[in-house]
């Protein structure tokens, strides 16, 4: 794998390539998504990129009915809330992402612990397209 710095720019570039990448600390084996250049657990900087499998479980979520202007432009709002959650990956790293494929108008149907798989959303940002990290229920279409 080509060397890339552990930056948000590199993380976004991997998302555009359809890869969920994190960084692993070679000293203590902790994994971080998005990646970190310095391990906050052992303060070492000997990190390497690691491809995540893209599966995990929902550990926390919220449905947002009053979103940012960018989310309003995408059609989200009071009548169409969106869901954001914390996903614990099988590699044990936790990442915040949009949760798709769930009934945000009926959040009681969304459950902590539900298995999820990664999804890469392509959205128009106004100045071009961008890739957004999201997860959807495992086995959803």
Summarize this structure briefly.
With 141 residues, the chain is mainly beta.
What does this structure look like?
This protein has 141 residues and is mainly beta. The chain has helices spanning 8-16, 69-73; strands spanning 21-25, 31-32, 47-51, 55-64, 82-89, 94-99, 115-124, 129-137. The strands form 2 sheets. The chain has a 5-stranded mixed beta barrel with strand order 4-5-6-8-7. The chain has a 3-stranded antiparallel sheet with strand order 2-1-3. Strand 5 (82-89) and strand 6 (94-99) form a beta hairpin. The longest helix is centred in the N-terminal third of the chain and has 9 residues, at 8-16. The mean pLDDT is 94.
Low-confidence stretches: none
Overall 3D shape: globular
Average pLDDT score: 94
Structural class: mainly beta
Reading the helices and strands in chain order gives HEEEEHEEEE
Task: Please give the share of residues in helix.
Answer: under 10%
Distance from first to last alpha carbon:
30 Å
Q: Quaternary status of these chains?
A: single chain
Which range does the strand content fall in? Answer: 35-45%
Largest sheet: 5 strands, mixed, barrel
- Helix count, per DSSP? 2
Q: Widest sheet: strand order? A: 4-5-6-8-7
CA radius of gyration is 16 Å
Number of strands: 8
Summarize the topology.
Blueprint: H1 8-16, E1 21-25, E2 31-32, E3 47-51, E4 55-64, H2 69-73, E5 82-89, E6 94-99, E7 115-124, E8 129-137
